Amino acid sequence: MSHPEPAPTLPCAPEAVRRVACIGAGVIGGGWAAHYLARGYDVTAWDPAPDAGPRLRRLVEAAWPALTRLGVAPDASQDRLTVTETLEEAVTQAQFIQESAPERLELKRELLARIDEAAPSGVVISSSTSGYPMTDMQTDCADPGRLVVGHPFNPPYLIPLVEVVGGTATREDVVEWTGRFYEAAGKSVITMRREVPGFIANRLQEALWREALHMVAEGEATVREIDDSITEGPGLRWATMGPMLTFALAGGEGGMAHMLDHFGPSLKSPWTRLEAPELDKKLYDAVVAGCDEEAEGRTIAELVAQRDQGVIDILRATGRLPRFPEGGVAK
Ligand SMILES: NC(=O)c1ccc[n+]([C@@H]2O[C@H](COP(=O)([O-])OP(=O)(O)OC[C@H]3O[C@@H](n4cnc5c(N)ncnc54)[C@H](O)[C@@H]3O)[C@@H](O)[C@H]2O)c1
């Protein structure tokens, strides 16, 4: 009688990981690399683009001043980044693998199967996907049980949240291990109990963006007015308290119950359009031009620096600077 192969065991405790591989090193993979380096990990990275190495090093270098202001691990160094020629070299010594390749299902399926083939047995492979369920991506892997989603927010070196969720073939101990790993790596983790397209935060963000695009398309608000309406309004509250508790306070002493009695019926009023707007050329051009106008000549690099400083100020003001087990503190 034949017995099924036992599931490979996880090679080390999540807190013991020292070497991380980043596969795909664009905005998100590069941001992850910067984060892991700042937390004192050794990072190997692979990306097939011919200019990927210098581009990645530029991204890490640009992020480093912000990371230093935030506080880096005592042994953190950009020199601990190795860019490899092949995917296999990048993953062969890795104790955790973060995939951040383009958001195309077929590409992710093939790439994750390649990583699974090359990676040491049992090492967890986590995808940065913005919305594909792992169930649809792990189909071609020999060991699909070790694949999980670890969805970050841009830039991963500053925004704490990671949404963790497994697919139907993912082992439960892998999901649990991954959540603990991200926490050890300084992230805030939400582990989802079931797969939901867009996870939690992207579903919320997309709803807001969809309404914003409708308002631009219909000439109801400019790009700048939409941005100001958040940064000068609800955005200030959301950095310290989420939309639910914020609304509970809007109900005064009656809290959320009063809020629901008072404003619940108006949810059925036509405040939302529900369907996505047609992204025709007119809307496309209006949104791009609106962003250019709002930037007032600031380059993308300047805007990145401004955003990073703003996020650091908020993290500092709300007592959310990184802490290191060694007792290192932010400057
Ligand atoms: N940009 C965001 O705000 C954001 C946020 C969260 C998650 N994500 C997700 O992160 C992933 C990467 O997105 P991004 O914004 O960094 O895109 P990007 O275009 O900036 O980077 C993608 C990188 O993947 C490389 N690449 C191309 N083919 C590859 C392959 N076969 N194997 C490995 N690498 C390959 C490209 O050269 C490029 O450097 C996507 O799944 C995306 O949905 C993006």
Estimated structural class: alpha/beta
Arithmetic mean of pLDDT: 91
How helical, in percent, are the residues?
40-55%
Report the radius of gyration as a whole number of Å: 22 Å
Oligomerization category of the chains in this entry: single chain
- By CATH, the architecture of the largest domain is named 3-Layer(aba) Sandwich
CATH fold descriptor of the largest domain: Rossmann fold
Distance between the ends: 63 Å
The count of strands amounts to: 8
Give your account of this protein's structure.
The chain is 45% helix and 11% strand. The chain is of the alpha/beta class and 331 residues long. The protein has 2 domains: 14-191, Rossmann fold; 201-317, N-(1-d-carboxylethyl)-l-norvaline Dehydrogenase, domain 2 (Orthogonal Bundle). It has an 8-stranded mixed β-sheet with strand order 3-2-1-4-5-6-7-8, with helices on both faces. Strand 1, helix 1 (27-38) and strand 2 form a beta-alpha-beta unit. Helix 1 (27-38) crosses helix 2 (52-70), helix 2 (52-70) packs parallel to helix 13 (300-317) and helix 10 packs across helix 11. The radius of gyration is 22 Å and the shape is globular. The model is unreliable at 327-331 (pLDDT under 50). Bound molecules: nicotinamide-adenine-dinucleotide.
Features:
2 domains; 8-stranded mixed β-sheet; Rossmann fold; 8 strands; binds nicotinamide-adenine-dinucleotide; 11% strand; globular; alpha/beta
